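[Meeting: bench + compute handoff]

Bench side (C.D.) handed over the final construct sequence. Compute side (W.E.) agreed to return the predicted structure before the next meeting so the bench team could plan truncations. Sequence as handed over:
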Amino acid sequence: MTISTAQTPADSTLKAKHRAMWALGDYPSLATTVIPDLGAELVNACGIRAGDNVLDVAAGARNAAIPAAALGARVVACDLTPELLAAGRQRADEQAVDVEWKEGDAEALPFPDEVFDKVISCVGVMFAPHHQAAADELIRVCRPGGTIGLMNWTPEGFVGQMLATMKPYVAAPPSGTLPPPLWGDPAHVRELFGERVADIGVETRTVTVDCFADPAGFREYFKSHYGPTVGAYRAIEDQPAMVAALDTDLAELAKRHDRGTSHTVMDWEYVLITARRR
């Protein structure tokens, strides 16, 4: 058993910041309102069925873990942020679905080698700052012949562009970390996995988001619900000009992607990647 646990003081500080960021706002409500079906799509793409041992990494708000458990799979949902796990546990109890909820770092998963049939992450592991470490862990805990399945926002898609829009308003990331949307580049993921996987499947898809009245409504919702956006605004809250500029930039981003008429309709691009561990 080779569970990875070592962290430098800098890593511990960074992870504490990530944990706190994702506890801001109300990501569970956002995931249910904005992208309710993504997790079930991932579960279906990975062929999860009754009896499978499944690990949902950076499980967030339960979008994939609960649909997998509802099929009869034995599911462990792992996330860095206790507040998200608590929300997932409550939702699973409400739906009478059995999921094990485990606090843990995607870059140092608290599980033995080769114990899961399916290892999945729905727009979650992409936010781990050290991509290679996270990819190594996904492979380590997956049994030979098992499936690794990921949904990641693309750099060119709406969420990738939203994160790029917020970048000038937040502190520069620490040296050695990589931006989340790189996980949406299949070439980057292939490089991370290397020869340890086979039968890589890549499919670019979009999810339709039509729950906002207008671009300003999108912005205001994300200002109060999405941890990275809440954090960006908190970082500049004493600089009114910066707040106004970010307000404009986010609304303009949504406006450029809006194809609706009576209300805002956007197509958010993501990549679905499946692979078999050799």
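W.E. noted at the follow-up: The chain has one domain: 9-157+173-208+267-277. C.D. will use this when planning the next construct.
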